[in-house]
Amino acid sequence: MDKGHRSLSSLVGGLKRRQSWAGQEITRGIITKAPNQTVSLLPKFGPEIVPNADAPFFCGIKPCKKTVAITDNHGDVTYNDLFSRSFYLSLEIKKALKNQPNKHQKINLVCPNDTSYIVGQWAIWMSGNIVVPISGQHTDNALEYFINDSESSLVISSPELMHKVEAVAKKTEKPLICQDKKLAEQANIDIEKSSALIFDEKLYEKDTPVMMLYLPIPGQDTPQRFLLKHKDLNRELELINKMWNLDGNSTLLHALSLYNPFGIIASLMSPLSVGGRVVLLERFDTMKVWSHLLGIQINGEYVPRTNIYAGVPTHFENLLKRYKEVFTEPKIKNHVKETCSKRINLMVNGMEYLDNDTHKEWSKVTGHNIQLY
Questions:
Q1: Neighbours of 100 (CB within 10 A)
Q2: I need a surface site. Which of 34, 120, 125, 148 has the fewest CB within 10 A?
Q3: If phi over 0 gives left and psi between -120 and 50 gives alpha, with beta otherwise, what is residue 223?
């Protein structure tokens, strides 16, 4: 009998092997708990892993507040901007929940791949509630299912997705907050004066869930709900940061979905937890990814230097396909390999195992052996 997973990544891998768990022990077998029941995502780790504080990871990055945290399709956003906008949104959340208990409420976060996601996540935690990420790419019926199934008290979205989220929120009778430009402009909070309301770890309760994720379970038609606490997240961040050697100079190129552990925890939260930077692409696009990996501008677009790339098997396969179409000259191929070898420190694959042929071909093209999350 297995005594416990050492990381969230190994646990996610275990899901594919039809593992289930109860308390601190994990047994191999079919998961029998009903899909609409909530279970704890992580068992206790061994004594050799020292958990971090039971508080949001952003409490440890206050000294980095003046540096750029996120680059998205709207431009650069500093840590100071993130804190200010998140704190202001947390006040709006409390107003929206004024007729309900103001803590431990589940809040659906339906945002595109941009700053609005991390602002929403931090704001929900600052208000003492539970973030439930839902992909804006889901169908209306799927959105309705997740909003109802999560038993949420509020939905937070952004202008880009209001055309579909607004109708679903109305149908499910949930209040809705839109992170529009006006809301962002009003967030001129002085972080120095508000630091006691944001960075004091005593504000965040121990052993209470702060995130709920939906993950598919083999053999089940509906995804399973999993709860995470800050100590679970912080422990996983600590492991990833050590494994990937992340620090304040790390800049990760992100073109992943923001509703699974690899996209949210490993690829977004990990660089931010050490004061690094994340370049968020709106969606996966082979030419945009290659332009960032090689530092080549397309139509004059801003291309900040990145040194980590996180993808999934289909991404690497499509990148290789585009490589064969575009990079045909021997000199250009040599330039691609040399540039990737020098500019990029780490390339990571998550969620599923990479085909061996793809792995070998990628290594030949870029000089990198893709690491498995």
A1: 11
A2: 34
A3: beta
14: Cα within 13 Å, side-chain hemisphere: 22
In tens, the pLDDT along 211-251 reads 999 988 877 888 899 999 999 999 999 999 999 999 999 99
> Domain residue spans in the chain?
79-212
Distance between CA atoms of residues 108 and 135, nearest Å: 10
Beta bridge partners of 71: 76, 279
Q: Which residue has the tokens 């000294």?
A: 63
Confidence of residue 150 (pLDDT cuts 50, 70, 90): very high
Q: What is the pLDDT of residues 179-219, one digit of tens each?
A: 998 888 888 888 888 888 899 888 898 889 999 999 888 77
Q: Are 49 and 259 in contact (CB under 8 A)?
A: no
* The pLDDT of residue 242: 93
Record: fold of 79-212? Rossmann fold (3.40.50)
The amino acid at residue 63 is: P
Mark residue 23 as left, alpha or beta (left: phi above 0; alpha: psi -120 to 50; beta: remaining).
left
| Dist CA 340 CA 336 (whole Å) | 6
Tokens of 42: 């992580």
pTM for the model: 0.86
Structure-token pair, residue 302: 């801003």
Q: DSSP assignment, residue 77?
A: E
DSSP code per residue over 160-201: GGHHHHHHHHHHTT--EEE--HHHHHH----HHHHHHHHS-G
Q: From its phi and psi, is residue 305 left (phi > 0), alpha (psi between -120 and 50) or beta?
A: beta
Phi, psi of 106 (to 5 degrees): -80, 130
In the predicted model, what is the mean pLDDT of the chain?
A: 84
What is the pLDDT at residue 361? 97
Which DSSP string do the residues of 248-263 spell out, in sequence order?
TT-EEEE-S-TTSHII
